[in-house]
Amino acid sequence: MSDRDGKIWMDGQLVEWRDAKIHVLSHTLHYGCGAFEGVRAYKGDDGSTAIFRLEEHTKRLFNSAKILRMTIPFTQDEVNQAQIEVIRANKLESGYLRPLTWVGDKKLGVSTKGNDIHLMVAAWPWGAYLGEEGMKRGIRVKISSYTRHHVNITMTQAKAVSNYTNSILANREATDDGYDEAVLLDASGFVSEGAGENIFVVKDGVIYTPDLSAGALNGITRNTVLHICRDLGLELVQKRITRDEVYISDEVFFTGTAAEVTPIREIDRIEIGSGSRGPITEKIQSAFFDIVNGRNPKYAHWLSKV
Ligand code: PMP
């Protein structure tokens, strides 16, 4: 991935993709204190390219940095602009953006005090994260043997680099066991989220999602689905959800920038509902793609034209 043509925005400048390098003594590489975002740009039905909820992603990046006591040396406007520039410079019609802020190589030792904070933005084409077929048929997931971070350990509202070891372990365990993705429970055994996705459950026409006290990231796609449910007149409840509640639900789906809206057809080899994408999931998925592809004027303000 490091050796290709293209441009990466690094500390205020567009640099050649293969020259966007950092030193091995960079603090974040050793201690994991850093934050990132995952953002998508879509080619709309009118042929133009737009970044979906760019401002909200940048805001979350700055909030993650705040939680981690890192001061990003750029304004949010500059970081928004950097993302637009990267899409343009790489001539992408659609794709995935990865802004990342990290602690530099001025000194090592646990404290980040006095070290430099850096920021980069890269972008590349990326299709359906959990597969095109999964978007239609639904995917198979496993409840992880790993517990999702407790809210007072690594700070679950920060999209922190170090939080992802937990996601990597859970994802590896699930995929090595032949599943598509993992679902993690919180330290009390309540459903939290996927390794990189929020989770929703449908039962008797009502939609449920874990409240954020279960340690899930406050997903921007999760928030988009809250809006969609309101628009469609669907009742949505945020509450504690148990593992067995998920087993006996009618439909389950994941949301995330990478995963978009992905149906789940099986959990721990237990078939969910009809064993394929459910009707409410399909409605929400289709409303989601209407929004990101510019077909719903109500949400035109969520699309930053490139
Ligand atoms: N939870 C985790 C752990 C994630 O990594 C992601 C992806 N950012 C999400 C949830 C979904 O968040 P979003 O919809 O903002 O991408």
TrEMBL record:
Its EC number is 2.6.1.42. The keyword Transferase applies. It comes from Rhodoferax lacus. Pathway: Amino-acid biosynthesis; L-leucine biosynthesis; L-leucine from 3-methyl-2-oxobutanoate: step 4/4; Amino-acid biosynthesis; L-isoleucine biosynthesis; L-isoleucine from 2-oxobutanoate: step 4/4; Amino-acid biosynthesis; L-valine biosynthesis; L-valine from pyruvate: step 4/4. It comes from the Bacteria. Keywords: Amino-acid biosynthesis, Aminotransferase, Branched-chain amino acid biosynthesis, Pyridoxal phosphate, Transferase. Its cofactor is pyridoxal 5'-phosphate. Coiled coil: none annotated. Acts on leucine, isoleucine and valine. Belongs to the class-IV pyridoxal-phosphate-dependent aminotransferase family. GO terms for molecular function: L-isoleucine-2-oxoglutarate transaminase activity; L-leucine-2-oxoglutarate transaminase activity; L-valine-2-oxoglutarate transaminase activity. This is Branched-chain-amino-acid aminotransferase. GO terms for cellular component: cytosol. GO terms for biological process: aspartate biosynthetic process; isoleucine biosynthetic process; L-leucine biosynthetic process; L-valine biosynthetic process. The keyword Coiled coil does not apply. It catalyses: L-isoleucine + 2-oxoglutarate = (S)-3-methyl-2-oxopentanoate + L-glutamate; L-valine + 2-oxoglutarate = 3-methyl-2-oxobutanoate + L-glutamate; L-leucine + 2-oxoglutarate = 4-methyl-2-oxopentanoate + L-glutamate. InterPro entries: Aminotrans_IV (IPR001544), Aminotrans_IV_CS (IPR018300), Aminotransferase-like (IPR036038), B_amino_transI (IPR005785), BCAT-like_C (IPR043132), BCAT-like_N (IPR043131), BCAT_family (IPR033939), Class-IV_PLP-Dep_Aminotrnsfr (IPR050571). It holds the Pfam family Aminotran_4.
